[in-house]
Amino acid sequence: MEKSTELRDHTASLKQHADEYYELAKTYQFDYNALWTKEQQKVRDILQKAKSDFLAANPAYELMEGIVAGVPSLAHYDIDIDAGISAEEGTEDVVSFDLKLPDGKTLEKPGNYFYLAELTLWGTNPEWIIPQIKPDLDGNGQVDFGEVLPDANVLKGISDAFAGISAQLLEDAKKWKPTPSDAFTALVVMIPTMEEYFQAWKESRFVSGDQAESKQFVAVSRLQDITDILAGLQVVYKHVRPMIDKIDANQANQIETDLSGLRTFVSEILTKEKAGNRFTAEDADMLGAEAQNRATAIAGQVTQAAAKLNVKIEV
Amino acid sequence: MQTRKIVLQTILLSIVFLIAGNGFPGSGIAARPHDPVLAAESVRSSLSDALHLLSSQPARSKNKIDEALKRYRTDLAADIAAADASSSSRIDEGFALAQEAAANHDKRRLAEAKSQIWTGILGASYTIVHQSMDHGDADKAEEWLKLREYRKTTRFSLPSTDATLAVSNYKQGIVSKEEAVTLIDSDLLDTYQGRLQKAVQDLRDASAKGFTVRMAENIALIEGYFHILAPAFQEQAGEQNLNALNAMMKELGATVRSGKDPAQKLEQLEKALQGFRAAPLSQEEKTRRAGQLMRFLSLVPVEYGRGVRNGHIVRDFEIVEAVTFTEAASVAFTDLQSDLQKIDGEKSAKVRQRLDELKALLNRANQQTEIASPKTVESAVDEISKLLNEVMPSEWLKQLSAGDLDAIAAVLDQMEAAVAQNDYVAAESARLQTYAILEAGPEPKLVAFAPQFIPRLEGLFWYGLGEYKGLAQLIQNQAELADIRKTRQELDKELANALEAIGGNDSPHAVLINSAIIVFREGLEAVLILAALLAGLQRSEYAHLRRPLWWGSIASLLATAATWILARELLLTLARYGERVEAVVSLMAVILLLLITNWFFHQSYWTD
User: Do A98 and B443 form a contact (C-beta atoms < 8 A)?
Assistant: First the structure.
């Protein structure tokens, strides 16, 4: 609930800043040259704040993603907020919404909200930014990667809808009454997704640099997301551990140790990455395989405990 | 030479420590292993750290290997050495290799050593579980059983719990020791075969990308998993084939270690393993897989036909479902392949080939690179079905309803997934499809043997049963997933009960007896009517009418046979209309009965 409230607040703040940016651009009839020439400081402030909102919303969501994505009644939010792909990219796990922009245009099933917001704010989709302007948003004297002027129309459309769905998730989260089956399902469904996350990390700028195939995960390393998700799952596990303790204290302890070990494993890689270590694609593959092996073992143990407790897991 | 020396040192040291009281000198750690799983995980984790530290911090990497070795010797070595000398020596060799690799800064060899040690521990754990069960020590078996691997959770499957529950049930006296051991074997061997297949796939991927460390890691995994599976392979394929496979494995290892492309050797290995199923299926499971295979296959053209119009994809989720069903059919076929190969190797290989072609064809459609016509897909499926009908044992084909519950569950899962994504059109499509499986599969048998379930199932599928709203109604009203799940859970229960009720009626004897009772009942009715009519013709003035009565009876028998043939052909032609045909036939029967009754009244009462 706490993280869901945080997500709602940060996305509401993102919406507020997107609105300010949109109104400012509108006063210049969306002439971005004039906007940047005359309102540099205001634009800098607004966009830096919008990016901060994104960076605050991201961990708030990732910390609860394990629950949202793992609980069948909430899982559709995960598709739309963080995990769904666009209709162009495939047919499985496509987001459920079409995005209507303020100028009346509609983006049909364009991908999840974090993806859309990141592509717009960090400019990895050139169609959603103003390419002729190269702004130095942080004022360090150079235009770094991710310093762009977003198309206000797109940014507002995305932010409005993102704030809306976040508020809706909070309402549904309030109504949700967790059951043991939900908790066990969340653990078994979410823990074994490590290889996919490491694959996303491998394809992102954090590993592949300028050769990155993915436009996403440029603002926050996917490793950060993984550690946040695992932290959320540790909270879930804390709640089911007493049940497992009753039937097999050793197993309960083992699951906790392994879960904590997996998080430490990923955190250490993240720390190295933050310290400037760069990993090769093969490193990423190997680390992903190791994480996957550990995750599969944990999910296996949780499944065994659920079977002994006669708790149904809904995959 | 250096490797041999280190191996000897390691073995000697292990023996010294074991004799010294199962402890590591000066470690102060309790000698008796308290938790083998935690110890094994710690060994694995230290070795993994060692591998990742080797390039940047070789000294720390070496320390990590020492940590792993110390933990192994302290908590695992004694039990492993006592139970499984072969695994124990593989592990010792692995540690020696790890130390040598660390000394030479050889990341590939260290990756190999890590996999060898880990699979050695897994193999030993499996042996200890087995031995503990043989000695009736279920507690020890339970403890060591946790030191195992699992198949990865997917959209369709969870890690198996068979072995865990088998030991637990054995402890409670619910199953015998033999039954428990069979379940343990089946679960663990199946898991390690799955892991072997994954390692083969990973080796191929790593080779394609030129990832040499990953290649080394995976070749040792392949060797390690096969070491666990070898006894099962020998039992099924014989010693000669095992030797041939071991030689093949050696060649593959040499190819990978020399840095050459292993694609060709991998292909040979996969070919040699084709049809091998480490954990043989029971007859019941084979029948169930056969049912799944035929049912899933039959759904492929249905889905594809709904998704494609005039060469364009109109409903992409239908194509995804067609792909999913093909994959599910392919998995079911893989499980049966070894049996089918023995019956007819040529046809079985052809089915495999056609299934692969179908998968490729559907994947191209899914990626919208080439969209085949529904007719093409239908022909491909028809050909596969024809081949399967020719090659599958008749007892599997007679009991195809065994796979229906799985097919229904798989499609109901898709329905729930669609609801979760607010895609109620897809959800309704999945619901209808499930209903079609029920109608085409178990329903005729339910009508005959357990009709009481039909209104209940129909209620849950359509417009409600008691406190449960019907799925059709719920989907139409775009209800919440929780409400839909509530009805689905009830439906699952009813389906399980219904199929259990007809489960015992799958045998030919049950069918024979039931059919005989129906025919005898109807025949008795006819005899009674004839007797009544003959009784009315006893008087001499009616004697001349007896012969025409017999002729009429014989003619009616012929008419019945003709009607049966005609009705059967007609009903088969109209089978796709399902319940609507039943309604029309019932209406016709009512009209016919009314006409006969009317005629009878006029003839018997009003005329006289």
Answer: no
Burial of B532 (0-12, 13-18, 19+ CB in 10 A): exposed
Long-range contacts: B53-62, Cβ < 8 Å, 24+?
Answer: B54/B101, B54/B102, B54/B105, B54/B107, B54/B110, B55/B105, B55/B107, B56/A277, B58/B102, B58/B105, B61/B102, B61/B110, B62/B99, B62/B102, B62/B103
CB-based contact, A76 to chain B, within 8 Å: yes
The three-state secondary structure class of B238 is coil
Answer yes or no: do A254 and B37 touch at CB < 8 A.
yes
Closest Cβ–Cβ partner in B152, B211, B416 for A282: B211
Residue B11, classified by CB atoms within 10 Å of its CB into exposed (0-12), middle (13-18) or buried (19+), is: middle
B37 contacts chain A (CB < 8 A): yes
Are residues B289 and B335 in contact, defined by beta-carbon separation less than 8 angstroms?
Answer: yes
Tokens read off for B483: 């409400």
Query: What's CA B436's distance to the chain center, in Å?
Result: 22
Output the tens digit of pLDDT for each of chain A's 315 residues: 778 899 999 999 999 999 999 998 899 888 888 888 888 889 889 999 999 999 889 888 887 887 888 777 788 898 899 888 888 776 667 888 889 999 989 988 898 999 899 889 988 888 888 888 888 877 777 877 788 889 999 999 999 999 999 999 998 888 877 788 888 988 888 776 777 788 878 888 777 666 666 666 666 788 888 888 888 889 889 989 999 999 999 889 999 999 999 999 999 988 988 888 888 888 888 888 888 888 899 999 999 999 999 998 876
Is residue A152 a contact partner of residue A17, using CB atoms and an 8 Å limit?
A: no
The tokens for B591 are 């009209």
Which residues are registered as beta bridge partners of B313?
Answer: B308
User: What is the DSSP-derived secondary structure letter of residue B604?
Assistant: I
The alpha helices in A80-151, defined as continuous H runs, are 113-121
A91 vs B316: CB contact, 8 Å cut-off?
A: yes
**Token representation of residue B371:** 């969209």
Which pairs count as long-range contacts for B225-230, CB under 8 Å and 24+ apart, including other chains?
B225/B119, B225/B192, B225/B193, B225/B195, B225/B196, B225/B199, B226/B196, B227/B86, B227/B87, B227/B90, B227/B119, B227/B120, B227/B123, B228/B119, B228/B122, B228/B123, B228/B126, B228/B189, B228/B192, B229/B189, B229/B192, B229/B193, B229/B196, B229/B278
Return the closest-CA partner of residue B197 out of B277, B80, B286, B109. Answer: B277
Q: Which of B146, B151, B422 sits opposite A301 (nearest CB)?
A: B146
Q: At what angle do helices A222-247 and A40-70 cross, to 10 degrees?
A: 30
How much is the ipTM here? 0.71
**Measured distance CA(B118)–CA(A293) in Å, rounded:** 11
- Tell me the backbone φ, ψ of residue B550, rounded to 5 degrees: -65, -45
Interchain CB contact of A303 with B (< 8 Å)? yes
Asked if B363 reaches chain A (Cβ–Cβ under 8 Å), the answer is: no
**Rg (alpha carbons) of chain B, rounded to whole number:** 33
**Residue reference for tokens 């399980």:** B496
The H-or-E segment that residue B308 falls in is strand B308-309
A107 bridge partner residues: A99
The answer to whether the CB atoms of B41 and A281 lie below 8 A apart is no
State how far the Cα of B22 lies from the Cα of B38, in Å rounded to an integer.
18
Q: What SS3 state is found at A85? A: strand
DSSP code, position A84: P
| CA-to-CA dists, residue A310 to A180, A247, B161, B165, B439, angstroms | 10, 11, 11, 11, 32
Spatial separation of the C-alpha atoms in residues A298 and B152, rounded to whole Å:
10
Task: Say how many C-beta atoms besides its own lie within 10 A of residue A42's C-beta.
Answer: 13
pTM of this prediction exceeds 0.80:
no
Cβ within 8 Å, pair A96-B320 = no
